[in-house]
Amino acid sequence: MRAGVFDSGIGGLTVVKSLLEDKLFEHIVYFGDTARVPYGIKDKNTIIRYSLEALEFFKNFDLDIIIIACNSVSAYALDELRANTNIPVVGVIQSGVKALQNKNIPKNSNILVIGTNATIKSNQYQFFLQKQGYKNIISIATPLFVPLVEESILDGDILEATFRHYFKDIKNIDVVILGCTHFPLIQDKISLFLNNANTIHSGDAIVEYLKYNYNCYGKFKETKIEFFASSNPSSLKNIAKKWLKKEDI
Amino acid sequence: MRAGVFDSGIGGLTVVKSLLEDKLFEHIVYFGDTARVPYGIKDKNTIIRYSLEALEFFKNFDLDIIIIACNSVSAYALDELRANTNIPVVGVIQSGVKALQNKNIPKNSNILVIGTNATIKSNQYQFFLQKQGYKNIISIATPLFVPLVEESILDGDILEATFRHYFKDIKNIDVVILGCTHFPLIQDKISLFLNNANTIHSGDAIVEYLKYNYNCYGKFKETKIEFFASSNPSSLKNIAKKWLKKEDI
Fold it and tell me: What are the contacts of A146-149 at 24+ separation with CB within 8 A?
């Protein structure tokens, strides 16, 4: 199987990492819109417009499925993307919510959803969680985590102060949904700050989702990956080498 | 006189504020490329490409001058912009350096230049400072100040920790050049952290520069401003009302 993976920038590499670990695909085409990142501060119409442009790009390849790694795109543009292609388009929000069921998280758990402004404002996580019977949901936009991760600030004073800023009124959380592909890089620190709350990681969640819903099983010996970016592709490739611990990119 | 003011997003409003205070223009057309902000993390070719698109937009107006409020655009795209229009295009870097002379800053002063990754990497401030005889120059990219200002984090623990992060090895600074239009909003805090160093503000610097080089004198009773944005113009207008303390926008 051949998959296109779309993200606003580099964050989607955390999803690619999960896809590689489970060897789900024979070939992955990654496109990061690095010229126009971040999407999380943009409005709905702009996110839809840019996502449809990315879809046009993917039409140059013979793909079986398109995976939307970006939460902001998953929140706003899935319907429009699906209306403009015949192959399946899968986002990270429904799969993230599904992961709670797979982990048998009780319906009365206290759930914290964190993400960019766009993702939180869309209310999509909250909508699907409620549909699954979860009621105790708090959602907070934590946009500063994105530049912190991009600046490789993965621990220390700034991150601690930012945790205190966003989480000052947050107590007794059982599960944190990491609603942005940048957040897995500070997943352990977030969990620790919130008294070892469980975390839901978009990449791991979508692997499970693809297995059960699209018959993707880890059967390929090796995955060929091609990286494309709307600006500075060599920088994307360098980060991919580091994050994926893969030299031949 | 009628001026176009171009910025990658909202930061250029700090320049507009200075232009309004000195009543330099009869009419200002502001364009913020809010759909594609920030520019400071983009590469040179992308910044040039987007700047030329903004120039095309300004051609819809009968303008006398175009002011590039964005330091990253001033660093990379001035030559290309000038080659594509007959009206003057003025950036904030040369005017910022000129401000040191206007303030009679001694040539042996210790100067710190801070800005986005793109601006610092361009070496433009350093080049013009050296040309003016300044030799003791330190430059640091401080990209996190941009999202902090955008999130209205203008004091407190996160900002202090970020100062310690960027300025841990910085001592005895006489003058700080604020090489990004977001930074005037934390100007006092930066100065205080660096033992009350002098600060150079792009907006104030360009007002002086326009007066001396382009015969702009504060003679207009009122300035009409029009705001345009590539995404979410109402959000830009709301921030403009707040920053410029002006209700009729």
Answer: A146/A11, A146/A38, A146/A40, A146/A116, A146/A180, A146/A182, A146/B147, A147/B143, A147/B144, A147/B146, A147/B147, A148/A186, A148/B144, A149/A11, A149/A182, A149/A183, A149/A185, A149/A186
- Model-wide pTM > 0.95: no
| Exposed / middle / buried, residue A106 (Cβ in 10 Å: 0-12, 13-18, 19+) | exposed
Give B-chain residues touching A160 at CB under 8 angstroms. 161
CB contact under 8 A, B147 and A144: yes
Choosing from B180, B210, B225, B239, the catalytic residue is B180
Judging contacts by C-beta atoms under 8 Å, the chain A residues touching residue B43 are 231-232, 235
State the alpha helices, DSSP H only, in B84-220. Answer: 93-102, 117-122, 124-131, 145-150, 157-167, 187-193, 202-214
Mean pLDDT in order along chain B per 10 residues (249 residues): 96 96 95 93 94 98 97 97 98 97 96 96 97 97 95 96 97 97 96 98 95 84 94 91 89
Three-state secondary-structure class, residue B228: strand
Neighbours of A165 (CB within 10 A): 15
Check if B180 is active-site.
Answer: yes
Residue boundaries of the structural domains of chain B: 2-91+204-244, 93-202
Given 1.25.40.10, 3.40.50.1860, 3.30.2290.10, 3.90.420.10, which CATH number is that of B2-91+204-244? 3.40.50.1860
Q: pLDDT per residue over B202-237, tens digit each?
A: 999 999 999 999 888 777 888 999 999 999 899 899
Among A197, A168, A202, which residue's Cα sits nearest to residue A19?
A202
The residue with tokens 């079986």 is A64
Best interface-test mutation with A: which of B34, B39, B41, B167 has the largest number of A CBs within 10 A? Answer: B41
Q: How far apart are CA A114 and CA A117, in angstroms?
A: 9
Residue B43 to residue A232, Cβ atoms within 8 A: yes
Architecture in CATH for domain A93-201: 3-Layer(aba) Sandwich (3.40)
Q: What's the rounded Cα separation, in Å, for the pair A235 and B118?
A: 14
Residues of B in contact with A164 (CB under 8 A): 157
Name A113's bridge partners.
A139, A177
What does the pLDDT look like over A48-97, one tens digit per residue?
999 999 999 999 999 999 999 999 999 999 999 999 999 999 999 999 99
A154/B contact by beta carbon, under 8 A: no
Distance of CA A96 to the CA centre of its chain: 9
Contact B72, B42 (CB under 8 A): yes
Q: Is the peptide bond before A106 cis (omega within 30 degrees of 0)?
A: no
Quote ipTM for the complex: 0.89
CB A249 within 8 A of CB A241: yes
Contact A160 B161 (CB under 8 A): yes
